[in-house]
Amino acid sequence: MLNSNFSTSIRNAFGGLTRAIWLLALAQFINRAGSMVVFFMAVYLRESIGLDLSQVGVVMSCYGIGALVGVYVGGKLTDKIGHYPVMVASLLGGFVMFMIAAEVESFEALCVVMFMLSAFGDGFRPAGMVAISHFSTKDNYTRSVSLYRLAINLGFSIGPAMGGLLAAIDYKLLFWADGGTCLLASVFVYFFLAKSHRDSVAESSDDATEVSKEVSRSPWKDKAFLMFLPLVTIYAIAFMQLFSTMSLYYKNHEGFTEGQIGGMLALNGFLVAAVELILVSRIERRGSLYRWIIWGSLMLTASYGMILFLHGYAWFLFIIVIVSFSEMFVMPFTNTFMNNRSGKANRGQYASLYVMAWSAANVFTPVIATRVMHNWGYDALWWVMIVFTLVVVGLTVWVRRVVGSE
User: Fold this and answer.
1) Residue 204 — very low, low, confident or very high, per pLDDT cuts 50/70/90?
2) Which among 227, 198, 237 has a CA at the least distance from the CA of 384?
3) 395-to-298, 328, 374 alpha-carbon distances in Å
4) Please, what's the largest Cα pairwise distance for the chain?
5) Around 76, how many Cα atoms within 13 Å sit in the side-chain half-sphere?
6) CB 175 within 8 A of CB 102
7) Which of 10, 269, 329, 395 could pair covalently with 153 via S-S, beta carbons 3.0-4.6 A apart?
8) Which residues contact 289 (CB under 8 A, 6 or more apart)?
């Protein structure tokens, strides 16, 4: 009976997803398997380059600003020329910038290069989301998002672990590995997603009349969506802190090695990859998306509460497990909310703003974290993050009421 139930869960989770979604997910797996630089950036800038803490925050904020610009431009280009050429150009641009980033060491040059690196990398994100919409249906959209995220997190389970080993040898190797996977992913997208792209273009042409008749509101006039965006940003700040400047705490306060840090990050990627799609297929019809966003936010609250009192590698592995379930509850359903508010004619605009809400966290997280760490210490930062997660809960309740009154 147990095997039968498990088999049914697997079929429900993976059944009915299109070939193009699988290819898109595989492309992201290749790309994210090289995701190493961002996780070790703070330590690299501090210990290898020798920047002070405030300079580290500035460089990482430039990385975040680049993400915002990349998402905005990527969304605009996706609406004009389509998701396929934007994805290919983004990956090729990322390869070039990683090669350049490996060679620069001055503070000013790092600010410029990290801005450009992030701009190219995040230009992929709205194009990827629009591609998911093209290649999925309303009934399997959330599961398609989860498969896409499964691929990303499988890559993340490999990237940080390998990154920890490479960083112990030479931090420059991280840039070469990240750039290499960008190049490999661009080749894969160019050759293997080409047919799916042509099919989606033909389908869009067939549906042109339907789209022209669709009454589309601007996302800037969608009150519920505009309230939803700060919710996403605040959650992202609290979540991403655990995977960015948190490496300074792991290394300097807890004394973890680069290999141990990479192992923790890999555990997050592995858990999300192994569990999320099956979990989402079981819960997506057992309550509203607001319910799961609230539960996920409270899990992140609990995680920061535990950091205040618990120490040691084993406890932090346990905390990463809780954080991983927070991610699995929140991220697929915030994505679904965005998709539900949009239509065929304006999906690129909604996707761009949604991704920008996430990218904004790349700007604010390092500034908030390094300033609070420097002025009041680590414990104060954990309390700030607890407040942020509780604000997310409150905003989620508010958005649900606004949507219910429409």
Assistant:
1) very low
2) 237
3) 13, 19, 29
4) 62
5) 5
6) yes
7) 269
8) 333, 334, 336, 337
Cβ contacts of residue 110 below 8 Å, gap of 6+?
A: 45, 49, 51, 59, 62, 101, 104
Q: Which of 315, 329, 323, 334 is nearest to 268 (CA)?
A: 323
**17-203+218-404 CATH fold:** Growth Hormone; Chain: A; (1.20.1250)
The encoded tokens of residue 91 equal: 């990956």
Structural domain spans, the chain: 17-203+218-404
Q: Is the pTM of this model over 0.85?
A: no
User: Which value, to the nearest 10 degrees, does the dihedral of the CA atoms of residues 109, 114, 117, 123 take?
Assistant: -130
- DSSP characters over 273-322: HHHHHHHHHHHTTSS-HHHHHHHHHHHHHHHHHHHHH--SHHHHHHHHHH
Residues 6+ apart with CB under 8 A from 374: 53, 54
DSSP string, 213-234: HS----GGG-HHHHHHHHHHHH
> Which amino acid is it at 341?
R
For the chain, the straight-line distance linking the first and the last C-alpha, in angstroms and rounded, comes to 45
Angle at 300 between CA 325 and CA 316, to 5 degrees: 80
Taking residues 386-402, report their average pLDDT. Answer: 94
Say if CB 99 and CB 147 are below 8 A apart: no
User: What pLDDT shows up at residue 257?
Assistant: 79
